[in-house]
Amino acid sequence: MIDRRTFGKLIGAGAATASLSGLSAAPASAAVPGGRTPAKPGRRTSFGALEQVDAGVLTVGYAEAGPADGPAVVLLHGWPYDIHSYADVAPLLAAEGHRVIVPYLRGHGTTRFRSRRTPRNAQQAVVALDIIALMDALKIDKAVLAGYDWGARTADIIAALWPERCRALVSVTGYLITNRDANKVPLPPKQEQAWWYQYYFATERGRQGLDQHRHDLARLVWEYNSPTWHFDDDTFERTAAAFTNPDYVSIVIHNYRWRLGLAEGDPRYDGLEKRLAKGPVIGVPTVTLDGEVDPFTPAGDGSMYRDRFSGEYVHRTLRGIGHNVPQEAPEAFAQAVLDAGRL
């Protein structure tokens, strides 16, 4: 999930600069119509055989689509989600000639630590370094990075600290780089209520609850985050399989406790975290997306984070769409990736 931020609904602006084959470009504010989001007949339900590669401290499980020599796109999932958020996005981008990489983040799916001695650390800088290591292992010098939730934060960090590795950025909910001091400031009670799981995870009871009820807890979060998305049981179960990873609980708990200042990070990354705490401006070409009915969308039509992006920039709001933007609106998400690469 994203950082504690001001909530609210908004309407979007902007226009698409390119269109997917067979799809017409539409004003960004109308990219997805309002109302409920039913599953579409013929949509992909899964990926084919997954790949595995040693990358840094991990052996990373990932899906790949498209030509090996195509311009690279790396798609990053959030919590409590997995690579299947992009099951419909990846083939759209592959059809446009892109090499598409969709990795499981640490603690999810088939990604594993290579050593039992490696700390099960999930602070923000480490997750970003995982993706840099993956790109190195796959010999990808530069890619369009796109994500939501944990994935958006990770993409934001790489774009901010290693812009030479990021050709362009698509970031759902805008600028998500964590400032732990800012996270200490309380929000109004109604807004704090939405973050119940973070406070739950701060306790031993919450850790045990995640361990024992990871399936039902994730489904509850899905339903809250995406109030207009009628996903079926099979869709959820495909993703829930990723939560059986042996390090899932350790990674999720450390991530949220670290953000609230309740768990320490690795001192080796203190320098990176100090840079991130300053809110570095992102200069690569960027498309930001907000789901109109995502309860974590900040108010202001993207204005709350606009000053964090200094390069070519487009902001869009997707009407009737919740938190899991790529799975709820795959065509609009794929269009954003194409457009970001052409800014």
From TrEMBL:
Keywords: Hydrolase, Signal. Residues 71-315 form the AB hydrolase-1 domain. The keyword Transmembrane does not apply. PROSITE patterns: TAT. GO terms for molecular function: hydrolase activity. SUPFAM superfamilies: alpha/beta-Hydrolases. Residues 1-30 form the signal peptide. It comes from the Bacteria. InterPro entries: AB_hydrolase_1, AB_hydrolase_fold, AB_hydrolase_sf, Epox_hydrolase-like, TAT_signal. The keyword Cytoplasm does not apply. PANTHER family: HYDROLASE, PUTATIVE (AFU_ORTHOLOGUE AFUA_2G14860)-RELATED (PTHR43798:SF33), MONOACYLGLYCEROL LIPASE (PTHR43798). This is Alpha/beta fold hydrolase. It comes from Actinoallomurus acaciae. The lineage of its organism: Bacteria, Bacillati, Actinomycetota, Actinomycetes, Streptosporangiales.
